[in-house]
Structure formats: C-alpha cells, structure tokens
Amino acid sequence: MLSALLDKDRVLRISVMTAAVFYGGTLLSVLVSTDFTNIMGQHLGGDFMAFYGASQAVLSGDALQAYDVAWFEEQLQSIGPAIEYYGLTWQYPPTYFLFVSPLVLLPYKLSLMLWLLAGFAFMALVLRFLPIGRYGLLLALASPMLLTAAVQGQNSFFIGGLFILAASQAKTRPLLAGAAAALLTIKPQLGVLIPIAYMAAGCWRAFFTAAILSVALATISTFVFGVSSWIAFADSLTRVSGDLAAGGVLYPHARMISPYSAFSLLGMSHEISMLLHWSIASLLAALVALVWRRSDDLLMRGSVLVCAGLLIPPYAYYYEMTAMLLPFAALLLTIQKNGWRQGEKLFFVAAWPTLLLLPTVQPLLPVQLGFLLVMAALFLTLRRIEQVILPVAVRRPAAI
To answer: Would 47 be classed as within a structural domain?
Structure first.
C-alpha cells in the first residue's frame, strides 16, 4: 500500500498538479483583484504586506517607527485598507531594511508578483547545487513547503534557500556558503548553530567569510539607520518574548514549530515550556557539533544542521520549513542508494499532505505537527548516519 503511494511517477504527477493549482491560484488572485483584497476576502499578498510597509517606511525616513506595533498597523492601512486590522508586526534586524527598501518603488501588485517569481527562481537556483536531478528538482519545487510559503507571501523562498546553501556547501563552496550564512543574519535566530557547525568541521573559509560579511552588513545598516535601529530591534524581541509569555496574541503558538510551542500547546506554563525548550536546544547544539565533527556526508550533516536550526528559536514559524527540502532530499537520495528502512515510507506518505494542510489544520489541534515532522526528519537522518556518531559498542546492527 505504502509502496503504491510512493510510486515515483504518481508522486510527481500529483505534486505538479497540486503545485499548479497553488501557484496558479496565487498569481491569479493577484491579477484579478481590483483592490488589496483577494478572492477569499483576505488581504492580498499575506505577509508580503509587512515587507512592503517596511519599504515605504524606509523611503519616507520612518524606518525605526516600523518596530512600533501601532504605528506599523497605521502604515499598512495607509497602503491599502483591505481589512480592519492586519495584525502584522516588524521584528527583523536593521540589515533587512537594506533588502526590502526597493519594494515600494513599484506598485503593490507588481512588486508582489516580482517578489514571488524572484523567490521561486532563487530557490530553483539553490536546488541546482544539490545532486537531485531533474525529477528531484521538479518534486522539490512542487513541494508543500514552498506552496504554503508562496500563498503566505513570505520571504521563506529566500531564507530557506540561504539556509540550504549555508548548510550544504561549506566544504565544497565555502565562499558561497559563508556568504549565504551572512545573508541569513536578516533572520538571525535560524543561523545560530551555523558557526558551531563550521568550527566543528574545520570549515574555516566558510566561517570567516560569514563572519566578515555579517560584520559588514551590520556596519552598513548601522551607518544608514543608526545605532538606535539596533536598540529598537532589541526592544522588539522583548515584545515578542512578552507576547509569548502572555499566550501568543500577536505571535500564535499554533503557527510555530519549536519545542516551546509544542509544550505550550499541550497546556504547559510559559516557564516550564521555555525551560524544556532550552534544554532541548542545548542538546541540539551539542548534536550538531558532534555530527559535523565526525561525519563526512555533506548532505546528511547539513540536514542535521537545518533540522536543529529550525528547532532552536522559540518562535520559528511553519513557513520556515522551506529549508526542510535539504533533509528531505538527503534522505531520499540515501534511500535510493541503500533502500528503505523501517518507518521511512510512512514518514514521507504522512509528511507531504500534513505539510500542505498545516496552516489550516494546526490551529484546531493541541499537538504541534510541525515540531513532530522536523523531529521525525532529524531522527531518520541521525539513524542513517549513526555509524559515524555513536561509539562502536552501542551501534545497532545494520538492517538486512
């Protein structure tokens, strides 16, 4: 039964058809809308509205005001009062202003379309660096991780692509990986384990490239927006922490994939959930160091870094899972070479539709599905490389 569901031609055909509906529907809703509301009554572009609003704030000289929740809401309403309340906030570092500032130079709908197309093209380019072939490339571009990000209008095509490059190319293309890691500082919570991985593996060219370019980006943004921009950014992080402690009004736990959100959804207190989260995060950091030090499998150790990196921040969202294309690809390539192991077929059969429905199903459930999927991918990856990270005495015999 599971083998029939995983037939290559059937999987690719269904995936491409589903992607055509999602991508086509997203672009069609942009084209046919006459204002800032799509055909479902939602504001056009989803989270892209926040990026466009920040761009307008930069060019009007009010960049630092974007960190103020009330002011930012007024800013979005001035762009297009599609709905009574957008509820979008700005908590990116000042470096990200440098990248979103050109967006407002174009009309909103045209800017949104180019944003989506550029993100798709960038991810396609990134995936070409992986040894997945034409079939794998089509399947990846039609994956539910990308579909949900496109509908949301998020920057996850860019963020996920940068994470994949930083995690997979440190040994073979260190300058590219280091540059990607530096650019990933626009969402710094996702890249905190990258320096640990690079140092553990001795990837010093990638490490120093990332360090130098990160400092350069921070310096440029400080020169343009001032030291006060970093203070405003730090204050925004305090606001996020306070909102999480209050139950997640602006930042709902159901939209996240972290251990913290998983424990919170189970009804645990903020303090207990955070304690458990950071305990797991510490173990993940040690695990990444161990794997990167001992494993020579570039894709599999990159997969561990991606999975662990997504679980480290307490408020990582489901749309960040675009980077999960790396562990999915690495697992499938290993399976193609060595055959299936117990639980892997079930994982892929369950993961694909779950990821597609995650934004709509998760708010109805007390169990954090995104967290479970990332943990499952991490477990399956570790099981494939256990021979290089476990002492000989505790290794299990290979599956027959």
So the answer is: yes
Q: What are phi and psi of 191, to 5 degrees?
A: -105, 15
**Cα 310–chain centre separation:** 7
Q: Which structural domain range is residue 386 located in?
A: 2-394
- What is the tens place of the pLDDT at every residue in 312-353? 999 889 999 999 999 999 999 999 999 999 999 999 999 988
Contact 135, 11 (CB under 8 A): no
- Is the CB of residue 93 less than 8 Å from the CB of residue 191? no
Query: Residue with structure tokens 């997945």?
Result: 132
Burial of 181 (C-beta count, 10 Å sphere; 0-12/13-18/19+): buried
CB within 8 Å of 246: residues ≥ 6 apart: none
Structure tokens at 78: 């001035």
Question: How far apart, in whole angstroms, are the C-alpha atoms of residue 188 and residue 185?
Answer: 4
Helix (H, G, I), strand (E, B) or coil at 317: strand
DSSP structural state of residue 397: P
Give the angle subtended at the CA of 289 by the CAs of 165 and 255, to the nearest 5°: 60
301 Cβ contact list (under 8 Å, min separation 6): 197, 201, 291, 292, 295, 385
Q: Cβ contacts of residue 34 below 8 Å, gap of 6+?
A: none
Q: Is residue 147 part of a domain?
A: yes
How far is residue 135's CA from residue 353's CA, in Å, rounded to a whole number? 19
Tell me the percentage of the chain whose pLDDT exceeds 90.
Answer: 66
Q: Is the C-alpha dihedral spanning 87, 147, 127, 354 positive or negative?
A: positive
On whether residue 155 sits in a domain, the answer given is: yes
Compute the average pLDDT of residues 188-208: 96
- Cα(340)–Cα(286) distance, rounded to whole angstroms? 28
Confidence class of residue 394 from pLDDT cuts 50, 70 and 90? very low
Distance from C-alpha of 212 to C-alpha of 236, rounded to nearest angstrom: 26
The confidence band for 393, taking pLDDT boundaries of 50, 70 and 90, is: very low
How many whole angstroms separate alpha carbon 200 and alpha carbon 178? 15
Give the other-Cβ count within 10 Å of 266's Cβ: 11
φ, ψ for residue 176 (rounded to 5)?
A: -65, -45
- Report how many domains make up the chain: 1
CA-based end-to-end distance of the chain = 21
Whether 400 is in a domain gets the answer no
**pTM given for the model:** 0.94
Indicate if the pLDDT at residue 391 is higher than 70. Answer: no
